[in-house]
Design a protein that fits this description.
Order of helices and strands of chain A: HHHHHHHHHHHH
Largest sheet of chain A: none
Radius of gyration of chain B: 28 Å
Distance between the termini of chain A: 25 Å
Strand content of chain A: under 5%
Number of helices of chain B: 13
Distance between the termini of chain B: 100 Å
Helix content of chain B: over 70%
Order of helices and strands of chain B: HHHHHHHHHHHHH
Shape of chain B: extended
Number of strands of chain A: 0
Helix content of chain A: over 70%
Largest sheet of chain B: none
Oligomer: heterotrimer
Structural class of chain B: mainly alpha
Chains: A mainly alpha, B mainly alpha, C alpha/beta
Number of helices of chain A: 12
């Protein structure tokens, strides 16, 4: 068991090293940081959201959008790099179980995303703190109290987003396990991401439908994909004045994500153990 | 027979798909208690697009917004587009754009209030102009148009109240439409009274409510209301205090209240 | 101790392609035994099934029929892989690691203890002659160096069985000779080596036994000498022989019932010539350099 964990750690560390050296990661990180910085500029277009809310919306948007792209692209790229360049062949000819290979790849990639999410949250907090100080010094007591934020909860929200990226990474790994090409994996994973984001609609649809084959199909869709709207809790967590989210709810969201991560990795292993390399 | 099926790739692939789907459904059942518990807490507070809005936004290339990011900036850009539609006096497109903007980002009160004003005040003018002008339509026809547009504006504002239940601005806007557009003092009074209950209600709301009661001939109610509200205005501006006191005194004259029974200001 | 390193009994491998399930037979009914401390060559043209056989031996593929055992254990058992070192064909490694880091990574993957890992990495790098370049990034290595660092990673955990897939393909004759030397050293150290190649000349002198695969079938196997020797013929290499002697010799042969079929001057192989010339040039270059330094 310890030897197995050790191998997973080594594969994860190597995967992380490979991922962090990719230009794609640096480019995406820079774009995201730049976008959060530019939130104050884009605020010129705003029609009524207060400035801090606007920056938060922008920051959360950048974390979700670029994080999702990164979770899919990096996972698929690193997996197919190993297969296509046949480094997987060398690795799997050693005393390495295929499940250890997959888990190592997954952990390495998710560690990269953890850093991505943390850096963006840090930048977001810094900008919010800066703008809030300016607003407070400019308006003093007149500054609306509901404009103030729970800074600590930005990191909790970032953690919740990271759990979502873990689920995204896990289903990408599942697709990698049977897909033949990188492009197929990328397209299919993006499609699955959209379905997961809109899964709640299937919920609402079948609740209103008559019993029949179409309802069964819609129900099947809502059952087979996780509900990603569950992770959109930024406003509730961060804005003072919104009805805040209980700790139990946060733990439930994390638990919900973990169940899907475990299932997807298990299914990925089930496919991959029979794959000819 | 079984081994034959095993070696057949179609059978094997179908079997894999069935197993994967079955396992995912099992996972859904396993995670359902967690989902249900969190959804109760998250659902009411969360932005979610309806199928209609999803279709609209996908059509307009706003997939990113639908997917959960950059909603504020996308809603703002959509509002700019809405302004063009408004300038072109295209009322059908205007309704669709209002729905899109307010669904993409329901957080700014600005969207709800200004959208309602466009629908209640501008659209009737366009419709009347298109039908030949104010002189070409009868008063009944004109008021029918006003009623129809006002009810659309109310629908927008009531949707807005669901997202902003703790502000005076939206109920006050409904009151203003009743008062200015429909000349319905009774319903206007009802909504100004609702607005007056919120801490962010402007000072004039109280006075307008009393005035609307007076206009309806409810002088006693107006007098009672103002005398009851006056002590709570201790922290209000001098201007507000003196105006309310002045209204009270005017109503005392109208109601012929004896001097010794008249209201005594405590501050 | 088990005397048989690899025991393959009647393995067949079918690949199923397409949705309709068309079967492609890569190898058919292969029987093979590799003894302990033997250098065994698996020869054959491209597409003959060598790599498929190797993947089955490594447990990366499962045979459709038949069995494959390594030191008495099924080849797909993970524990077996501790006793196998594998160098893939045209190896590619993570280019951002140095040679040392790469070998160390695989050493740790194989579960070598932290206390001995550095020593083992140094030893295997020394064995393949890569000490000077060990701190350079793998991405900057030549093909020959890649092959050698690949060998180092295959040997770092001191496996009993070493499997080399086309170890000299794309490598210059000097590099190939260096690899051959390493293989001989491995045999001296008691290892079993299975070489898979289509460059017959390069492994002819190296292998104890060979098997020839063609279209997925084993068409010939045995000791190299047994397979190559023409037992009904003999050759004599004579120095300073004149024309009279040649006539007399021919007469004697015919008197004894033999027949002289061919007279030719013995030739060195081009490979031998190349190695000798390069060696000579290298030593001259070295002497010149020493003089200049003085």
């Amino acid at each position: 068991m310890i030897a197995s964990l050790q191998r997973i750690r080594l594969i994860a560390a190597n995967t992380f090293l490979e991922a962090v050296r990719q230009k794609f990661f640096s480019a995406l990180l820079l774009i995201s940081v730049g976008l959060i910085f530019s939130a104050s500029f884009f605020q010129q277009f705003d029609f009524g959201t207060n400035e801090l809310k606007f920056i938060i919306d922008f920051g959360f948007g950048a974390i979700f959008f670029f994080g999702s792209i990164l979770a899919i692209a990096v996972m698929a790229q690193l997996f197919f790099n190993e297969i296509d360049s046949r480094t997987a062949l060398t690795l799997l000819s050693k005393p390495v179980h295929r499940s250890e290979f997959l888990i190592g790849k997954f952990v390495g990639t998710q560690f990269l995303l953890l850093i991505f999410v943390f850096v963006l949250s840090l930048v977001l907090v810094a900008i919010l703190f800066w703008r809030e100080s300016i607003l407070l010094s400019r308006f003093g007591n007149e500054a609306r109290l509901d404009a103030l934020l729970h800074y600590y909860d930005i990191f909790i929200f970032a953690g919740v987003q990271w759990v979502r990226f873990c689920v995204i990474g896990a289903f990408t790994l599942l697709i990698c396990s049977f897909a033949k090409t990188y492009v197929y994996t990328l397209v299919t994973s993006l499609f699955v991401l959209i379905v997961c984001q809109l899964q709640y609609i299937a919920h609402e649809m079948y609740a209103q439908m008559d019993i029949g084959p179409v309802r069964l199909l819609v129900q099947l869709v809502s059952w087979t994909f996780p509900n990603f709207q569950l992770f959109n809790v930024g406003d509730q967590l961060v804005l003072v004045g919104s009805s805040s989210l209980s700790n139990a709810a946060i733990i439930h969201i994390i638990g919900y994500g973990c169940i899907y991560v475990i299932t997807y990795i298990f299914l990925a292993y089930n496919n991959f153990r029979r794959r000819e390399i | 027979m079984f081994s034959l099926c095993n070696s057949c790739p179609i059978v094997s692939k179908i079997r894999t798909v069935i197993i994967v789907t079955a396992l995912l459904i099992c996972t859904a059942f396993l995670s359902q208690p967690l989902e249900t518990r969190v959804w109760q807490e998250v659902d009411s507070q969360q932005w979610r697009g309806t199928i209609k809005v999803v279709e609209d936004t996908l059509g307009q290339g706003l997939t990113v917004g639908i997917l959960g990011g950059f909603r504020a900036i996308l809603a703002d850009l959509a509002w700019l587009q809405l302004s063009t539609v408004w300038a072109n006096e295209d009322r059908v497109k205007l309704s669709a754009m209002i729905r899109l903007v307010t669904t993409l980002d329901p957080r700014p009160e600005f969207f709800w209030i200004n959208a309602a004003r466009m629908v209640a005040y501008d659209v009737p003018a366009w419709r009347i102009r298109k039908s030949g002008g104010y002189n070409a339509l009868s008063d009944i026809q004109k008021s029918a148009i006003d009623e129809e547009q006002a009810s659309q504006a109310f629908e927008i504002l009531k949707r807005g109240i669901n997202f902003h239940p703790n502000t005076a601005r939206l109920p006050m806007e409904i009151g203003q439409i009743y008062m200015n557009r429909l000349q319905n003092d009774a319903l206007a009074a009802k909504w100004f009274y609702e607005a007056s209950k919120f801490p962010d209600a402007p000072e004039f709301v109280v006075r307008i409510y009393a005035e609307l009661l007076r206009r309806q001939g409810k002088l006693v109610e107006a007098y009672k209301y103002l005398t009851q509200i006056y002590p709570s205005l201790i922290n209000a501006s001098d201007y507000q205090q003196s105006l309310v006191l002045e209204r009270i005194q005017m109503l005392e004259i109208d109601l012929n209240i004896m001097k010794e029974n008249r209201f005594q200001a405590t501050y | 101790m088990n005397d048989t390193a690899i025991q393959i009994k009647g393995i067949t491998k079918d690949f199923i392609s397409g949705f309709r399930g068309v079967k492609l037979r890569a190898i058919e009914d292969i029987h093979l035994e590799v003894a302990n401390n033997e250098i065994y060559g698996l020869l054959g043209p491209n597409g003959s099934g060598k790599s498929t056989t190797i993947k089955i031996v490594l447990g990366l593929l499962r045979a459709s029929k038949g069995t494959c055992h390594i030191y008495g254990q099924p080849s797909h058992a993970m524990s077996v892989r501790k006793s196998i070192g594998y160098l893939p064909e045209a190896p590619y490694f993570h280019s951002y690691l140095s040679g040392y880091e790469l070998v160390r990574y695989y050493a740790r993957i194989c579960g070598l203890d932290r206390k001995i890992v550095n020593q083992r990495v140094d030893d295997s790098i020394e064995l393949v002659g890569m000490q000077e370049a060990k701190n350079r990034l793998v991405g900057t290595y030549s093909k020959g160096m890649l092959q050698r660092i690949g060998l180092a990673q295959a040997l770092v955990h001191d496996p009993k069985l070493v499997i080399l897939d086309e170890p000299t393909a794309g490598v210059d004759p000097m590099g190939a000779e260096a690899v051959a030397d390493i293989i001989r050293t491995l045999k001296d150290r008691g290892k079993t080596v299975l070489i898979c190649s289509h460059l017959l000349g390069q492994i002819e002198d190296l292998c104890d036994r060979v098997a020839i695969l063609h279209r997925g079938q084993l068409i010939r196997s045995g000791r190299v000498d047994d397979l190559l020797q023409q037992t009904d013929r003999e050759s004599y290499i004579v120095k300073n022989f004149n024309a009279d002697g040649r006539v007399a010799m021919k007469k004697v042969i015919e008197e004894q019932g033999g027949r002289l079929t061919n007279i030719e001057k013995p030739r060195r192989s081009l490979n031998e010539l190349f190695l000798k010339e390069v060696e000579l040039s290298e030593s001259t270059h070295l002497k010149k350099g020493n003089k200049e330094t003085k």
